[in-house]
Design goal:
320 residues, alpha/beta, 20 strands, 23% helix, binds zinc ion
């Protein structure tokens, strides 16, 4: 059914790679985070993913596929399903001779404000990410995250401090911007986030109460920046700030130091440990292969009764 070579996961007997790691003739691109996008000759992705990649000035030769649009390749068919990670993010369902394979890409169950919600289908073979596939990574409930975020901001305002909210420019920032704008906070966003917000808006996701940061007075305003700018002059020149990093890694109390932040909050665009396990229970696969995460997750899946392996240890699967 699939084979692993130096370019990544390839569907046997075809030129189709799944998030190919190197330049490939044809690759499915699950979403627009840069670790998933290479200069392939041709890509298959959702229209939003294609626009997000193009926004970064990357020319791509693309076959746009909407969610649920079936597309035949060689002797199999493919269908993209929402994965709840960022705008346009998709799983791919591959069907050949009545057997189904799902490759998840990055995914997050539950409600999203800016991405279509994860859709779960049953499949014989599941290839999945396991970014937070260790039991210590259990995220707080959604209401608790919102409450902690609002309290952080209100505390800053109460002390005359500028709250700086940090999240990756694609995905996390838009989800936080949507949430905070809808709560009627006023937000100044870094232009790098603004460029991506524009693409979201083109796809019908609308945001309130924000402007692109141009050095304006930040009294009673939130400043939102990508984490790599935490120590940049644009931020350090602001008189009093307190920085909050939004990341699933916040479950580890030391995570904030890694990002140069004062605090961290487990506001994530990935599944946590329990959600990863629950996802596999719902897909009910005969074989599971994990990638992008904690290797030890295979043992937890085996404990649950699944036949699980590391993808990297499985150069070829031809049973199906
Ligand atoms: Zn991602």
């Amino acid at each position: 059914m699939f084979e692993i070579d130096d370019k990544g996961i390839r569907i046997t007997g075809s030129e189709l790679y799944l998030d190919g790691r190197k330049k490939s003739p044809l690759s499915f691109v699950s979403h627009a985070h840069s670790d998933h996008v290479r200069r392939h000759e041709q890509v298959i992705a959702t229209p939003a993913t294609i626009n997000l990649v193009r926004q970064r000035n990357r020319k791509i030769n693309a076959i746009p596929l909407d969610y649920h649009q079936r597309y035949p390749i060689d002797d199999f068919s493919i269908e993209l399903l929402p994965s709840g990670h960022v705008l346009g993010s998709a799983q791919i369902l591959i069907e050949r001779d009545g057997l189904k394979l799902i490759y998840t890409g990055d995914f997050k169950p539950g409600k999203n404000l800016t991405a279509a919600p994860l859709e779960v289908r049953r499949a014989n073979i599941l290839i999945m990410e396991s970014t937070f596939g260790a039991p210590q990574f259990v995220f707080p409930k959604e209401w608790e995250i919102i409450e902690r975020l609002a309290k952080f901001i209100d505390r800053c305002f109460g002390s005359g401090i500028v709250p700086v909210v940090m999240g990756y420019a694609l995905g996390k920032s838009q989800e936080a911007l949507k949430l905070l704008g809808d709560l009627d906070y006023q937000i100044s966003i870094h232009p790098l986030i603004g460029q991506i917000v524009q693409v979201y808006e083109q796809h019908g996701i609308l945001f309130k109460n924000y402007q692109i940061y141009q050095g304006e007075d930040l009294r009673e305003r939130i400043l939102m920046i990508p984490p790599h700018l935490a120590r940049s002059h644009a931020v350090t020149k602001i008189w009093r700030t307190r920085k909050l990093m939004l990341t699933g890694w916040a479950v580890d109390p030391d995570a904030r130091y890694r990002y140069g932040a004062d605090e961290a909050l487990a506001f994530s665009d990935h599944a946590d440990f329990n959600q990863l396990i629950e996802f596999v229970r719902q897909v009910q696969p005969e074989r599971v292969f994990i990638t992008h995460g904690f290797d030890s997750f295979v043992y937890y899946l085996r404990k649950e009764g699944f036949k699980a392996n590391l993808l990297e240890e499985t150069p070829q699967l031809s049973l199906f």
